[in-house]
Design brief:
The protein is α/β, with parallel strands linked by helices and 395 residues long. It is 40% helix and 21% strand.
Length: 395
C-alpha cells in the first residue's frame, strides 16, 4: 500500500522549549573562556555570563535562527510535508512578548506550522548560544520564558482541542528541565494512554547527555508512555551509565534496554539510535536492524547544529504519511545530510545529482527506498519530485 501524501491539520503536536538560536563561528579560546565542550549542550550558568553579547558584538557571521529541539523537529517535519499538508504540525511552548517571539512566529508561519505559545508578559523569549568550531557546535541555552511555561496553558479549552486533534506527540527531554514541564508532559502522555482505540503515539528524544545524567528519574517516569525513543550515541552512553548497564558503549544493548523498559501503553517500543556517519540502530524488543548512513565529505559539512532534530523531522515526515520504517529512517538520514550542509537547523536545495547518489547508495546498501518520498525529503526543486510522481502514477 502506498503512503498517503496529505496529512491532516494538527496530526503532529510538539511540546517543548522555543528558543531563538544566536549562532556564530568561534575559536578554541571562546570555548575555553566559557567552559564549552564540542558536540554538547548545557543550560546557562554564571560562568556563561556575557556569552550572548560576545557572540553578537565580536563575531561578524552571527545569525539568528528559530531553535529549540522540539520546535526544530516540528518545523522540519512541516517543511518536508509541504503546502498540501499545511498546519499538519502544531507546537506548544513558552515565549515572551518581544521581537524574538515574533521571529519565532514568522519561522513557524513560513514553514506552515501553527504555534500555540504560552506568553509570559514579564520574561523575555529564550535564547540559545550556538558556538560553531570546526563544524561541531556547542549549545548554551537561556530558557527564560520557556522556563516559565505553565501547565494551566494546556488545560484551556483551545489547547485541549489541539491535544485531542493530534495523532502523534513529540517531546524532547529538554522539557523535563522546566518546572512545570514534567507534569505537562505526563498530562499529554496520559491522554494518549486514555485513548488506545485511536492508536495515538507518544514519542521522545533523549535530548542531551546532561539530561540523562541529571534528569534520569523524570525521564524514567516519562519513558513508560513512549512508543518511539530517539537518541544519539553520546546520549545513549549517558543513559547507560545512569541506569548501570554493563557496557555504556554497546548501542545494541542500550537500545534493547530502552525498548524493553516497562511500558504503560499497548504495543512495542521502538528505540532509534544514531551515530553520526555510522549506521543507525533500530531496536524493537529483541529485534535489531542497522541502517547505513550515506557518506558525506567533511568538506561539505557546514554546521552539525540541528542534525539530530532534522533526522527526527525527516523520519516523522514519512511516519505521519504511513511510510515503512526503512523509508522513514532513510528520510531521516537524507534530512540530516541536507541540514549539516546549511547554517542552523534549516533545509536547503539539493542538486539532483546528490539525490541520485542517495538512491544509488541506498540500493547498494540494500535499503528499502521510495524515490518519491526521498525526493520530497531532500527538499530540492519540486519539478524533479513531480516528475518522479508522474512516472510512478503512469505505471
Amino acid at each position: 500500500m502506498s503512503a498517503k501524501k496529505v496529512v491532516a491539520p494538527g496530526t503532529l503536536l510538539g511540546v517543548g522549549n522555543p528558543l531563538l538560536d544566536i549562532s556564530a563561528s568561534v575559536d578554541k579560546d571562546f570555548y575555553s573562556k566559557y567552559g564549552l565542550l564540542p558536540a554538547s549542550a548545557c543550560l546557562m550558568e554564571e560562568k556563561h555570563a556575557g556569552i550572548y553579547k560576545d557572540l553578537i558584538e565580536n563575531h561578524k557571521d552571527v545569525e539568528y535562527v528559530a531553535g529549540g529541539a522540539t520546535q526544530n523537529t516540528c518545523r522540519i517535519t512541516q517543511t518536508l510535508l509541504g503546502s498540501t499538508s499545511h498546519g499538519a504540525c502544531r507546537f506548544i511552548g513558552g515565549v515572551g512578548r518581544d521581537e524574538y517571539a515574533e521571529k519565532l512566529r514568522k519561522a513557524c508561519k513560513d514553514a506552515g506550522m501553527v504555534p500555540f505559545y504560552h506568553v509570559d508578559e514579564n520574561t523575555p523569549t529564550g535564547t540559545c548560544a550556538v558556538a560553531i568550531l570546526d563544524h561541531e557546535r556547542s549549545l548554551c541555552a537561556n530558557l527564560a520564558a520557556a522556563n516559565t511555561f505553565k501547565k494551566a496553558h494546556i488545560d484551556t479549552p483551545e489547547i485541549q482541542k489541539v491535544i485531542d486533534d493530534a495523532q502523534y506527540y513529540y517531546i524532547s527531554s529538554f522539557f523535563l528541565t522546566v518546572p512545570e514541564g514534567p507534569d505537562t508532559l505526563l498530562a499529554v502522555a496520559k491522554h494518549v494512554q486514555a485513548n488506545p482505540d485511536r492508536k495515538k503515539q507518544f514519542m521522545m528524544n533523549l535530548g542531551a547527555e546532561f539530561l540523562m545524567q541529571f534528569f534520569q528519574d523524570k525521564f524514567q517516569v516519562a519513558l513508560q508512555y513512549c512508543d518511539i525513543v530517539f537518541g544519539n550515541e553520546s546520549e545513549a552512553t549517558a543513559y547507560a551509565k545512569a541506569v548501570g548497564l554493563p557496557d555504556p558503549e554497546d548501542r545494541v544493548a542500550i537500545g534493547r534496554a530502552i525498548s524493553n523498559a516497562p511500558k504503560a501503553t499497548p504495543g512495542p517500543r521502538i528505540c532509534i539510535l544514531t551515530h553520526g556517519a555510522d549506521s543507525t540502530i533500530v531496536v524493537t524488543g529483541d529485534e535489531v536492524r542497522k541502517f547505513p548512513v550515506p557518506k558525506l565529505a567533511k568538506s561539505k559539512m557546514i554546521d552539525t547544529n540541528g542534525a539530530g532534530d532534522a533526522f527526527v523531522g525527516g523520519f516523522l515526515s514519512h511516519h505521519l504519511r504511513g511510510g515503512s520504517l526503512a523509508v522513514c529512517i532513510q528520510a531521516g538520514h537524507a534530512a540530516a545530510r541536507n541540514c549539516i550542509q546549511q547554517s542552523g537547523c534549516v533545509l536547503g536545495e539539493v542538486e539532483e545529482s546528490v539525490f541520485n547518489q542517495v538512491l544509488i547508495q541506498a540500493a547498494h546498501d540494500g535499503i528499502e527506498i521510495d524515490p518519491i518520498s526521498v525526493a520530497f525529503t531532500l527538499g530540492f526543486h519540486a519539478g524533479t519530485a513531480k516528475k518522479l510522481e508522474d512516472a510512478e502514477s503512469s505505471k
